[in-house]
User: Which sequence fits this backbone?
């Protein structure tokens, strides 16, 4: 991998390590996202994908390693700080408040208030109304901003989480397994969101364990396996069939020897990358 | 629009209905008592103590937590109030110190729960014994008069009678209800209480400072318990070393009756307000009906179980 000057990329994570108790989940991960780049992050369940992006969004603190945002090293990092910078996340768990209305969920954690912290409920509802039309394409009157999120379908919930992230005009949008459990048409909608992000000149990280979901929209694909980056490909440089072949190789041997990088010392184990395969 | 309003407020409507039915029942069965104003004046003098604590406890329960220590904090703060009053001769200073002590006691609960990730039920069982024990040790089982507080205008401001009839403490309970309603429904902090109770992990990743929310919620509980302790002591012009005892279950019952579920995430101040009134009038109503006091507990039990079942069924219909 070419080590770019920090300012050449939007965000750069260097040698990130993280353990939960005795389990070392991230073992020195280097990861970066360029300006106006869509990065697909692939890996088996438990590979550490969500942990990596939770560090990037300030939810977890890494045990060691650094994060640079537009060349600036981040210190005293937190969720609030990440948002200030312009990082929006659709978490795998969706991070919704299911007993509450759609409009409340859109503004969860950053309510529109006056200077004393009192809510501008009218404005929030109006904005929410606009957001669900604009980003979610919910033109049916069936879904109102007053709908309780817990009563909505999986696709609609995902739509709320994504609309929420898109609305706040972030430079980097992280989608953690946004297509899991969605129907074909809902998946298509998510993919078109990602294309829209690209068109708007923004960047995104698209996490999935389905290569067929991420390949069409990604500029670059990074493969994470048991806490290590084991492969990294520019989409332009590798056709889908070749990539799938590579994934089989990693799954079988735990290493990549040619075009890929980070091939050293990747342990072989019982749970490799088989599940990445179709 | 109407439907939405109904859907959002069906729990509150159902509890209001329960109160209405009870009142009608009491009026029919014992018209002499329940059609005179006196009984309502009596209610308004006693209900506010547990109502204020129940309103405050509603925030704790919505937050997904529980507090069992407020009756002991109430008692200890009553003691502090009495001692400071006798030392300084000032109701104002005594009130201030007492509420401060209540806030500190509440903060301590929050601190232990947040800092050491302890379950609130366990922590507040502990602090409940601690504050009750400390009160006993300090006052040696002896009460103390508060009759001299009548010289202070504050006495009349806190527990006086408007037009010689209406107890002022009821006014304070309404003020507390309005204030907490405002925070819970119109302020960012209230929204954060709901999100914390609904799904703590979600709230956390959405940037809500869950630890701070919980700490503040427990702190205010301590403060309102102290305030209730002062009102209750001033009302009888005496500090009883047993102050606070007997409030625990009635107060918690008022919250659950009001439709706030034990799992948190939802709940209303209005519901608790009505719940506290129901709990407050039940005992008098049962006795006025000619049933012996032995029936009270049984009827409490019935009303609570029935109401909570109704709430639960209504909620599941929505979800
Ligand atoms: N908060 C946590 N506490 C303890 N272990 C965790 C926590 N979060 C994740 N893990 C563990 O870390 C590993 C990686 O998890 P995760 O990052 O969610 O993987 P992925 O998103 O790639 O499926 C798993 O073994 C998981 O059990
Ligand atoms: Mg994950």
Assistant:
């Amino acid at each position: 991998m070419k080590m770019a000057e920090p300012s050449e990329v939007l965000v750069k994570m260097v040698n990130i390590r993280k353990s939960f108790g005795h389990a070392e989940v991230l073992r020195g991960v280097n990861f970066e996202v360029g300006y106006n780049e869509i990065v697909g992050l692939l890996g088996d369940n438990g590979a550490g994908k969500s942990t990596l992006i939770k560090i990037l969004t300030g939810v977890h603190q890494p045990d060691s390693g650094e994060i640079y945002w537009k060349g600036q090293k981040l210190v005293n990092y937190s969720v609030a700080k990440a948002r200030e910078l312009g990082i929006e996340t659709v978490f795998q768990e969706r991070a919704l408040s299911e007993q509450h209305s759609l409009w409340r969920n859109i503004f969860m954690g950053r309510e529109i208030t006056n200077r004393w912290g009192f809510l501008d409920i009218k404005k929030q509802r109006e904005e929410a109304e606009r957001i669900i039309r604009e980003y979610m394409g919910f033109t049916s009157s069936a879904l109102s901003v007053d709908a309780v999120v817990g009563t909505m379908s999986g696709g609609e919930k995902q739509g709320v989480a994504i609309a929420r992230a898109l609305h706040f005009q972030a430079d980097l949008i992280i989608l953690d397994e946004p297509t899991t459990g969605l129907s074909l048409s809902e998946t298509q909608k998510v993919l078109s969101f990602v294309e829209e992000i690209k068109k708007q000149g923004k960047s995104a990280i698209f996490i999935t364990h389905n290569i067929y979901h991420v390949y069409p929209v990604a500029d670059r694909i990074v493969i994470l396996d048991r806490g290590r980056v084991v492969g990294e490909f520019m989409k332009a440089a590798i056709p889908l069939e070749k990539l799938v072949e590579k994934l089989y190789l990693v799954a079988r041997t735990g290493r990549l020897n040619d075009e890929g990088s980070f091939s050293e010392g990747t342990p072989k184990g019982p749970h490799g990358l088989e599940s990445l395969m179709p | 629009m109407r439907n939405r309003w109904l859907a959002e407020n069906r729990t509150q409507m159902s509890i209001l209905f329960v109160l209405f039915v009870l009142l009608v029942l009491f009026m029919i069965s014992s018209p002499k008592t329940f059609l005179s104003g006196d009984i309502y004046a009596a209610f308004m003098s006693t209900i506010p103590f547990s109502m204020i604590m129940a309103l405050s406890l509603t925030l704790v329960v919505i937050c997904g937590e529980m507090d069992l220590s407020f009756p002991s904090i109430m008692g200890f703060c009553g003691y502090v109030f009495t001692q400071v009053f006798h030392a300084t001769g000032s109701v104002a200073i005594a009130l201030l110190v007492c509420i401060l002590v209540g806030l500190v006691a509440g903060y301590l609960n929050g601190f232990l729960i947040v800092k050491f990730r302890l379950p609130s039920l366990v922590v507040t069982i502990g602090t409940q014994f601690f504050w009750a024990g400390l009160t006993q040790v300090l006052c040696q089982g002896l009460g103390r008069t508060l009759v001299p507080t009548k010289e202070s205008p504050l006495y009349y401001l806190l527990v006086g009678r408007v037009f010689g009839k209406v107890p002022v403490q009821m006014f304070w309970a309404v003020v507390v209800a309005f204030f907490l309603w405002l925070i819970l429904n119109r302020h960012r902090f209230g929204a954060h209480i709901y999100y914390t109770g609904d799904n703590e992990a979600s709230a956390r990743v959405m940037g809500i400072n869950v630890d701070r929310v919980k700490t503040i919620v427990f702190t205010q509980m301590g403060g309102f318990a102290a305030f209730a302790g002062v009102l209750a002591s001033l009302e009888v012009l005496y500090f009883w070393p047993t102050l606070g005892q007997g409030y625990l279950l009635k107060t918690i019952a008022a919250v659950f009756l009001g439709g706030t579920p034990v799992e948190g995430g939802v709940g209303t101040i209005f519901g608790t307000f009505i719940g506290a009134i129901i709990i407050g009038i039940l005992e008098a109503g049962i006795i006025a009906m000619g049933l012996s006091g032995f029936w009270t507990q049984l009827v409490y039990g019935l009303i609570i179980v029935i109401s909570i079942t109704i709430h639960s069924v209504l909620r599941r219909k929505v979800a």
